[in-house]
Design goal:
The structure holds two protein chains of two kinds. Chain A contains 32 helices and 21 strands. By secondary structure, chain A is of the alpha+beta class. Chain B is mostly helical. Helices cover 71% and strands 1% of the residues of chain B. Chain B is built from 17 helices and two strands. Chain B has a two-stranded antiparallel ribbon with strand order 1-2. The termini of chain B are far apart. The chains are: A alpha+beta, B mainly alpha. Chains A and B meet through helix 1, helix 2, helix 3 and helix 4 of A and helix 10, helix 13, helix 14, helix 15 and helix 16 of B.
């Protein structure tokens, strides 16, 4: 083998030194060759790394060290009409934790655990709590088991998967997960279980966040003491930091709680839907009220409002410099039509009115005379274990009749929105909020009930407009109402005990007296179809489109509402078809059992449907017997002999006649009973239409939407849902009747409550629910002033005993509003004048 | 008895001092100082201080406009300490040049035992550091030294002495075993610290000496065969112990598939990214966005400094450094071959082997050719023990060169005089 030149040089120059040092030249040569190869490999590898893969590496390098952070602005503010904030975002401080990914040894974990423990103690000493949603719980046997708290099994399974991978528990059996975590994260043994769980909960947050290598939030909205303490101790609290965020604030407590609503975290079932719109997993969304219905306006999470910040971070996750920044946009603000002060007045008035009614009812039900009168019913109640229902809930809506704008909207009982500050609510607070008679339920838009006599305004308009009566028609109460198709065994009568008081009534007096006999007569003449037509025209069969979630659709009775053969039984307007269907089904099954015939589900359902349809297929009930018999004979193979001997047909008839619209139902419809159910908000616009002479507006609670820069995005104009074209005289007569209701000299139904005010018109409604009069629902509709009405108020009190009982609440609201409005109006008018000059 | 010992030691020490004085370096001898070697080493060391500065720099928003601004805004703690280490290293080099190298050889048994004693003491006294390693003895509050580093020079002297004392190459297994045990005891003491990297350096130096000393080829094959035989059970043992606990196996798995261990292999992955992203000319010493300043590579001022060299100075800088190392190695090979004294030749060869072990393993692990073991890059990595040791080794080489060349010259003069006479 030939030697490299420099070695041979040496050997040539100093040949004789060679043999003496005994280093083997040949081997040195081989060694040099091997070394050359090694250095060639090093050169080659470095060359490849830089020249061929350099660009990839450079890209990876910038991906590693830079991070794009999505930024979110603040959620929009909700203002009342006077720009008082009802909900707003304020800047807040969160505590975050970041684990340096290069520090992954057991000693590092132990150090971090110590830091977390100290952070928890620090935060708790200042009265705040850390995120504590650890996915393992102790079961009843004292074992620690996985509990991800997801609502569906599949979500739970996927949580378990991510828990297992993120905590590297793949090779650990589930029984040992908890112990394994305790030892892996060096959780001290001398602390109690709840503290162990708190620390592990934070580790869990950190592990679940590990993939996007950003700090995770471990405590929300901490105070300044915590912020300054953490900053002072930043050297020892390695990984703990402060981040700025925003927190929702509801400053008004219970006021307008049902209107404003609240925010919450996205539920796991709806996560995908929101993520598709660009929401992050931990975003807050409106869960009720305006917060929910105007989510798209308020939310800062909508894609185009998001900002972004590209930053360079060092290995500890600390931001070193900004590379790119796009400011996020705040959500739009919403201005409502309601007035906070009026809301307060209304809420207090409704509450005290309900309390007063309750006192009245409590006195009544111990009254001996009352007890004597209702002895039989009370016995029944006692036997069935039923309690007497007293007034405990209600709703009130105030509306501007000339625009459909909602001036105030309250539902009772209410709840304290301040529990929802920050968007998170503890389990105990959540329980507190829900205490009592379903306070979260917005009865003003979501509840519907039979209207009682407040419906008579509609019947009156229908009667006048359709020509069933004229403004001069006089009808006297004759006691029992009779007519073809009217049940004579329990003949319908007026509510009054002295029919002489309801003599020779015009429409005006009939409304004042709320005379049932008069309206029986009108309805009988009109027929259900005509009444329905006018109820629909007045907006009682459709939604008011108020910008609040959960609005129910009111409906007014007719044959289709009672039973619509084109709809499945489960989707009918009332429960009556379902009750009838179930009764028939069980009857048929028992017959089948007796005869030894097995009916399968499909066959029996088909037969039940056919039988129910008979109720609407014939003009007269007398024609039903034959088709019923045919169904029983041929579809169900019940022998004729059995039918004849057991009167099965008759039984079926009694069930399906519940679904048959009779003249009786028509006259009941006319006085607001029957199956009709209306919501307070629908009634508000119906009365508004009466008050304004026939314009039916959509209800409107959103006035304006304002962009963060102050520009108006949307200024909502009144929407006319329907314009009724008929003689204005009819409306005037109806209003005249309503005016008399509050008039002492005319002896109206609510007169005694309005002795001291003369500008309010009203109509009371008492709808019967059970045989006990104290359980009646109370309705009252009012408007004022008599000329040019400015405000319509609707009060609905469940089990309110009698409609007139609502009067104090209505009166207080109107008095406050008109006095307040006259003050503010004079000032605005002045301003207008000066502008035109 | 004790008195006799002390008296004997006094006499011995006096004799040693007398020898040193007798053989002191004269200005005439200094002509034989090997300047090329010293200059290359000094250049690399100064370059190393710059690299340490780069590696320990903190993040910047923009590139500093001047060196002054750079020095004002950045911490100079590590580079300053490294400069101090360099000065101590130069002193050490002078000492190891001054004391006649043969004297070290005559002390070899004492040195060997002293090394064992210090290593045992380290195992007993050292604090448990990273990875459960007990390798450092604390000196004051801010410093610690690593006895196994200094031990390397000790072992080079001992091995050189042992190999040069043999008249013939090793040809018997028994002799080889003896040698193996001689090397094995200190290596074992380092292995249980545990410091796998340094132990490997000991073994590497030893094996290269075995090889270069002309040991019988069949014995070399046997060593190779035994090593393979030993490796198989060790490998299976490591595989069967759970991977999380087995640090060594993890290192190998991480080397083969770094992408499977994003957390643990972060150092390797980020190191390679830094090299690749440095490009041809590098990002500069303190530059915004560099991994050096963002701290993405742990130990980037010590074991992983080669990644910073390449990131800051690019492929050109990296290759230049490797080229400089090749020059050192080549120079040492040439010097080793030029020395006629076997002991001196073995010393130089040992120093070369030691530096080679560090260079190949360190650069190899950073660029992903070899699994990671924690050993520094000579003259560049931050760390006093290593730098001082390397300068001591260079001093030893100078020592050998000066004295052998001087002796040659004397001999030549003598011969020529003789001829003239």
């Amino acid at each position: 083998m030939k030697l490299p030149k420099f070695i041979t040089d040496i050997s040539q120059r100093e040949p004789k030194q060679h043999p003496t040092n005994r280093l083997f030249l040949g081997r040195m040569t081989i060694l040099c060759v091997i070394l050359s190869l090694i250095f060639v490999a090093i050169f080659g590898r470095m060359n490849i790394m830089v020249r061929s893969m350099g660009e990839t590496y450079a890209e990876t390098a910038s991906n590693k060290s830079t991070k794009s952070i999505t930024l979110y602005g603040m959620r929009g503010t909700i203002y009342d009409t006077n720009m008082n904030p009802l909900a707003y975002d304020r800047t807040s401080y969160n505590v975050t934790f970041y684990r340096d990914p290069s520090r992954a040894s057991a000693a590092d974990r132990e150090a971090y655990t110590r830091v977390l423990l100290e952070a928890i103690q620090l935060i708790e000493s200042n009265g705040k709590t850390t995120v504590n949603d650890f996915w393992m719980r102790k079961n009843e046997h004292g074992q620690w088991v996985f509990n991800g708290g997801a609502s569906t099994d599949s979500a739970e399974a996927s949580r378990k998967r991510s828990f297992r991978t993120n905590f590297s528990l793949t090779n650990v059996s589930e029984d040992h997960w908890f112990d394994s975590l305790l030892s892996k994260y060096s959780i001290p043994e001398d602390i109690d279980d709840s503290m162990k769980v708190k620390i592990l909960a934070l580790w869990q947050e950190s592990r679940m966040n590990a993939f996007n290598s950003t700090p995770c939030t471990i405590a929300y909205d901490v105070g300044f003491e915590t912020v300054s303490e953490i900053e002072v101790r930043s050297d020892e609290l390695d990984g703990i930091d402060i981040s700025e965020s925003s927190t929702r604030v509801y400053p008004q407590g219970t006021t307008a709680c049902h209107v404003v609503g609240y925010i919450s975290k996205i539920s796991s079932t709806r996560l995908d839907e929101y993520r598709a719109q660009g929401y992050p997993n931990d975003a807050f969304i409106g869960a009720d009220g305006i917060e929910a219905s105007l989510e798209n306006q308020l939310s800062p999470y909508i894609q185009y409002r998001q900002g972004s910040r590209t930053v360079e971070r060092n290995t500890r996750g600390k931001v070193v410099r900004d590379l790119d920044y796009t400011a996020p946009q705040n959500g739009n603000s919403v201005v409502l039509t309601i007035d906070t002060d009026l809301q307060k007045v209304m809420a207090d008035a409704l509450k005290s009115t309900i309390d007063d009614i309750r006192v009245m009812q409590e006195e009544t039900i111990v009254n001996e005379h009352w007890l004597y009168l209702n002895q039989d019913i009370l016995d029944e109640y006692e036997a069935a274990g039923k309690e007497i229902q007293l007034a405990s809930s209600g709703a009130m809506v105030a509306m501007d009749p000339n625009t459909g704008r909602v001036l105030g909207l309250v539902s009772y009982p209410d709840f304290d929105l301040s529990y929802f500050n920050g968007g998170t609510i503890s389990m105990s607070d959540w329980a507190k909020v829900q205490e009592g008679n379903d306070p979260l339920y917005n009865r003003a838009v979501s509840a519907k009930d039979s209207p009682g006599s407040i419906f008579k305004l509609c019947t009156a308009l229908a009667g006048l407009a359709e020509g069933a009566i004229t403004v001069d028609t006089r009808i006297s109460d004759m006691g029992a109402f009779t007519g073809t198709g009217i049940d004579t065994t329990h003949a319908p009568r007026c509510w009054t005990s002295d029919i002489n008081r309801h003599r020779n009534q015009t429409i005006v007096q009939a409304i004042k007296n709320s005379c049932n006999y008069f309206f029986y007569t009108v309805s009988y003449a009109l027929g259900a179809t005509n009444i329905y037509k006018w109820a629909a025209a007045l907006g009682l069969t459709s939604k008011t489109n108020i910008e609040l979630p959960g609005e129910t659709t009111s409906f007014v009775g007719n044959q289709d509402m009672l039973y619509d053969p084109d709809l499945p039984i489960s989707q009918q307007a009332t429960y009556k078809p379902l009750i009838a269907a179930n009764a028939i089904r069980s009857k048929l099954l028992s017959v089948g059992e007796e005869l030894g015939i097995e009916y399968d589900e499909e066959r029996i359902s088909e037969a039940v449907k056919k039988l129910l349809d008979i109720s609407v297929s014939y003009d007269r009930k007398a024609e039903w017997a034959q088709p019923i018999r045919e169904v029983l004979l041929y579809d169900l193979n019940i022998p004729a002999s059995y039918l004849n001997s057991h009167y099965v047909g008759n039984t079926i008839t009694t069930y399906i006649q519940e679904l048959y619209w009779t003249a009786n139902e028509t006259i009941m419809l006319g006085i607001g009973q029957s199956i009709t159910q209306v919501s307070p908000i629908a009634v508000a616009r119906y009365v508004s239409a009466i008050a304004n002479g026939g314009t039916v507006y959509d209800a409107q609670i959103v006035d304006k939407i304002i962009a963060p820069d102050g520009s108006v995005v949307m200024d909502k104009e009144p929407v006319v849902a329907n314009q009724i074209y008929t003689s204005n005289l009819y409306f005037e007569k109806i209003r005249e009747g309503m005016e008399d209701v509050t008039s002492m000299e005319d002896g109206g139904t609510a007169a005694k409550y309005f002795a001291d005010v003369d500008y309010i018109a009203a109509k009371t409604g008492t709808s019967q629910r059970t045989d006990l009069d104290v359980e009646n629902n109370a309705w009252e509709v009012l408007y004022a002033p008599k000329e040019n009405p400015q405000i319509v108020v609707v009060i609905y009190i469940q089990n309110g005993y009698a409609g007139a009982n609502c009067s104090p609440a209505g009166k207080e609201t109107i008095v406050y509003y008109l006095e307040h409005a006259s003050r503010s109006e004079s000032s605005t008018i002045g301003a207008d004048f000066s502008m035109t000059e | 008895m004790v008195r006799t010992w002390i008296e004997n030691f006094r006499i011995w020490a006096k004799a040693q001092v007398q020898t040193i004085v007798d053989n002191r370096l004269t200005r005439r001898m200094m002509r034989y100082f090997d300047w090329p070697l010293f200059i290359i080493v000094m250049l690399i060391s100064l370059f190393g201080i710059v690299c340490v500065f780069s590696a320990t720099s903190s993040e910047v928003v923009e590139t500093p406009r001047s060196i002054m601004e750079m020095l004002e805004t950045q911490s100079t703690y590590y580079p300053a300490r490294q400069l101090r280490n360099l000065l101590v290293g130069l002193v050490m080099m002078v000492i190891f040049t001054y004391v006649p190298y043969k004297l070290f050889g005559s002390w070899s048994n004492g040195i060997y035992l002293l090394n064992l004693a210090v290593l045992m003491l380290t195992k007993l006294l050292a604090e448990v550091g990273r990875g459960g390693m007990q390798a450092y003895l604390r000196v004051g509050s801010e410093s610690a030294f690593q006895p196994s580093e200094f031990g390397k020079v000790a072992m080079i002297i001992c091995f050189a002495k042992v190999f040069s004392d043999r008249k013939k190459p090793i040809s018997k297994l028994r002799d080889l075993m003896q040698m193996g045990i001689y090397m094995g005891i200190p290596t074992f003491l380092i292995l249980i610290q545990p410091d796998f990297g340094t132990a490997m350096v000991y073994a590497f130096v030893f094996i290269l000496m075995i090889y270069i000393s002309g040991t019988k080829r069949s014995l070399l094959y046997r060593i190779l065969f035994a090593a393979v035989l030993l490796a198989i059970p060790v490998w299976y043992y490591m595989r069967n112990t759970s991977s999380g606990d087995n640090f060594r196996l993890m290192r190998i798995m991480m080397w083969l598939h770094p992408e499977n261990y994003p957390d643990d292999a972060r150092q390797i992955i980020n190191g390679q990214i830094a090299i690749g992203s440095g490009g041809l000319f590098g990002k500069g010493i303190v530059s915004p966005g560099s991994f050096a300043s963002l701290g993405y590579i742990s130990d980037d001022h010590t074991d992983f400094i080669f990644a910073i060299v390449c990131e800051s100075f690019g492929l050109i800088g990296g290759l230049a450094l490797v080229a400089a190392y090749i020059l050192i190695v080549a120079r040492l090979v040439r010097l080793a071959l030029s020395v006629e004294d076997p002991y001196g030749a073995y010393v130089i060869f040992g120093v070369m082997a030691m530096l080679l072990a560090h260079i190949i393993e360190n650069i190899g692990m950073v660029i992903g050719l070899l699994p990671v073991t924690g050993i520094p890059l000579p003259f560049v990595s931050y760390g006093g023990s290593n730098l001082i040791t390397n300068f001591a080794a260079i001093g030893l080489v100078q020592n050998v060169m000066i004295r052998t060349r001087y002796r040659n010259r004397l001999r030549r003069i003598h011969t020529s005089r003789a001829i003239r006479l």
